[in-house]
Amino acid sequence: GQQVMQIPQYQHVQEGEDFTTYCNSSTTLSNIQWYKQRPGGHPVFLIQLVKSGEVKKQKRLTFQFGEAKKNSSLHITATQTTDVGTYFCAGFGIGGSRLTFGEGTQLTVNP
Amino acid sequence: GAGVSQSPSNKVTEKGKDVELRCDPISGHTALYWYRQSLGQGLEFLIYFQGNSAPDKSGLPSDRFSAERTGGSVSTLTIQRTQQEDSAVYLCASSSRDSLYGYTFGSGTRLTVV
Fold first, then answer.
1. 8 A C-beta contact, residue B60 and residue B78
2. Domain B5-113: assigned CATH number
3. Which pLDDT score, from 0 to 100, does residue B111 have?
4. Residue B1 confidence class, pLDDT cut points 50, 70, 90
5. Distance CA B86, CA B100 (A)
6. Whether B99 and A92 lie within 8 Å, measured CB to CB
7. CA–CA distances in Å: residue B104 to residues A61, A71, A97, B7, B44
8. Which domains are seen in chain A, by residue range?
9. Which chain A positions have a beta carbon within 8 Å of B93's beta carbon?
């Protein structure tokens, strides 16, 4: 079945440093979504990417969808302590009926 | 309602007892999902309901787990003869049919089996 892999599993950064998490699917995706889960909270939808090569920005967050629609990345510029949490990617396979979530990247930001 | 509502928020039960977890999705969302998350881990898919279609039960870990969705709205996840390894946070999510705006998750039920 479809698998979505995410790296790194953990990332510790100093406040102000940049952060990137990568997501790779075993199959071509129709779209990919990103979620953020704060410590003690539940996952919250951030964004959906649909088109090959698509790039979307939300303030300091930049999301990319690969040309082959099999990989994606989330880049945070100049991290802040409010960025702490686990970031999950989740992909819809072509013809799929539900999302397959990656294992998440847990981000820690040291002030 | 405005969001996905789950109850109870916390449940402590003795090993061997049955538990029922409830999820009230966003009104109008046809899709409902149950996930399990152990401490510091990812999201483990359990079951998926879409409208009147037969549910996708492929993630249920054993026959002690079952779920139903009545009237296309509220869902109940039942765990029979609970075991200590069932301790986790159980998350419910709902979405529109095409999930265009993503899944909306509830705050979860933290289940502790003692």
1. no
2. 2.60.40.10
3. 98
4. low
5. 32
6. yes
7. 20, 23, 16, 16, 16
8. 4-110 (2.60.40.10)
9. 43
